[in-house]
Amino acid sequence: MPVNRNALIRYRTIDQCLQNRFKKWTLDDLIDACSDALYEYQGIDTGVSRRTVQADMEMMRSNKLGYEAPIVVVDKKYYTYSDKNYSITNSPLNQQDMLVLSEVSGLLKQFKGFNHFTDLNEMVSKLEDKIYTQKTQSTPVIDFEKNDNLKGLEWIEVIRKAIVAKKTICITYQSFKAREASSFCFSGYLLKEYRNRWFVLGVPHKRNAHILNLALDRIQAVAEHEEPYRENRSLDLATYYNDCIGVTKSPGQRDCEVIFWIDAANAPYVVTKPLHHTQKLLSEDINGKIFSIKVILNFELERELLGFGAKMRVLSPRILVKQIKAQLTKTLENYGSNNIMRVVQDADSE
């Protein structure tokens, strides 16, 4: 049966709400969420009726769209999914979904030739491949890099909306080093992806607080908060990460020239895929090439350089050379016979 775009927006919104099990969703909460979504995406400010949202959930429960969503009512008041892993996004695409996707794909293809929209090329290719495989029930012809077990993706849209609306959010967060989670108010400024992990840059609402970068996969809960949003008045978000590899950076941290040598066999890989946009070729001979990049020194840079192993040698600055040597020394120690035997014994004892 035909489904209009507004209905699809409401279904997706209800689905996102019911997936968030950190909040108890009343019918009024779902009505407000759907009204906000329609205003954001369609500019509709008349809201959504109680009857419409109730009918939407009945449609989602049915098999008319292929969803058969396990929506239940708890304590005669709160709506949720009986299966915590359920989402309508896991359901096969129906005919209406395919029509919408084809419409979107056709629209995006019109912009593929524009320099300002070069980032759309990969997105359009992904979308067209998805449409092709769904229509033909065949295997994909493009295998993009992905991580199906990646956590935290459910927070991207919630945080994006808060940033756009300049709303404060309360985040429950537990870093890998922390023994337990903590909750705090946070004003987000920028969502950043690096190697299939997502991060949000912003400032916690604490006295003398500094810019903080949070990994979305360490977030346990996100909720709106009434505390006033703290505007970004110091960072140029368009260029903030231009001088670093990765996401680890402090405001005011200065970049420096990093010079490294790559052997002749592997130099072509670095030429065709530069480590950084500032990369320059300084010299070359039959044994290899010497390059430079201008970046801040951080963990991600060290990991990138160490990934080349014996194929690379860092030449400067001295502090980075010292850190790389220390890491390689520790690596050799880990491969010592005594250490290997101890690790094997510990594994066996478990």
Automatic annotation (TrEMBL):
Q: Which PROSITE patterns match?
A: WYL (PS52050)
* Chain ranges of the WCX domain: 256-331
Quote the InterPro entries the UniProt record gives.
CBASS_pafABC_assoc_protein (IPR051534), WCX_dom (IPR057727), WYL_dom (IPR026881)
Query: Which Pfam families does the record cross-reference, listed alphabetically?
Result: WCX, WYL
Q: Does the keyword Ion transport apply?
A: no
List UniProt keywords, sorted A-Z. DNA-binding
Q: Which domain of life is it from?
A: Bacteria
Q: Name one GO molecular function term.
A: DNA binding
Q: Where is the WYL domain?
A: 156-222
Q: What is this protein called?
A: Putative DNA-binding transcriptional regulator YafY
| Annotated organism of origin | Mucilaginibacter yixingensis
